[in-house]
Amino acid sequence: MVENKKRTIIWIIVGVVVALGIVILAFSNGGADSAKDIIKTITQEQKTPAKTAAEDAKVIENLNVSQSAFVSQENLPKGTVNLVVSLEKGFIPNQFTVKSGEKVSLAITSEGTLGHTFVFRDSSIRVSLNAGSGETNFASFVAPSKTGEYAFKCELPGHEENGEVGKMIVE
Q1: pLDDT above 90 covers what percent of the chain?
Q2: What is the mean pLDDT of the chain?
Q3: Which of 31, 45, 127, 132 has the highest CB neighbour number within 10 Å of its CB?
Q4: What is the residue-wise DSSP string for 48-102?
Q5: What radius of gyration, in Å, describes the C-alpha atoms of the chain?
Q6: Are 129 and 156 in contact (CB under 8 A)?
Q7: What is the per-residue pLDDT across 94-106, written as a single tens digit (0 to 9) for each?
Q8: Bridge partners of 83?
């Protein structure tokens, strides 16, 4: 009986510590966007209404670096790198090439019934995208000045291990 009470108290403490960790992560500067994006993708609370090409163009025009927006896939700007991601196929294409210091337009489109995310492993490239089933999320950023390969992944549990990885090559 006493052993069961101890076990119950330990589990309650573990639950409180985990909950506090999530709250701290969600409100800290370093992880706020990422934590919110993951939670939004998992719960799929935000569904994007259909937009016109003019509405998408206005959103894209006003987009600042490191911000993202949901847009219609057919309204993506010319030259956008559009990665289609699914649990079965991973990122298609799983690599793309950009020029050092150039502005990059990037979109992920989630195919299938699950949501997906996109982040670079190198934390100096602060791009975080998420897309629920059938959604397209778009962002612009400036490619690193240092040439080389920059790995990216889906950060949802089990997705990276399932092959949702790729690389950006900066020339």
Answers
A1: 42
A2: 76
A3: 132
A4: PPP--HHHHHHHHHTPPTT-EEE--GGGPPTT-EEEEEETTTEEESSEEEE-TT-
A5: 19
A6: no
A7: 999 999 999 999 9
A8: 108
Residue-wise pLDDT tens digits, 83-96: 999 989 999 999 99
Residue 83 structure tokens: 């990665």
Note the residue count of the chain.
171
Element (H, E) at 140: strand 136-142
Q: Read off the tokens for 149.
A: 């390969």
pLDDT value of position 155: 93
Q: What is the SS3 string spanning 19-60?
A: HHHHHHHHHCCCCHHHHHHHHHHHHCCCCCCCCCHHHHHHHH
- The pair of structure tokens assigned to 65 is 């670096």
- What are the start-end ranges of the H helices in 87-157? none
- Tell me the mean pLDDT in the region 3-17: 67
Q: What is the sign, positive or negative, of the torsion defined by CA atoms of 14, 17, 23, 28?
A: negative
Q: Is the bond preceding 93 in cis, omega lying within 30 degrees of 0?
A: yes
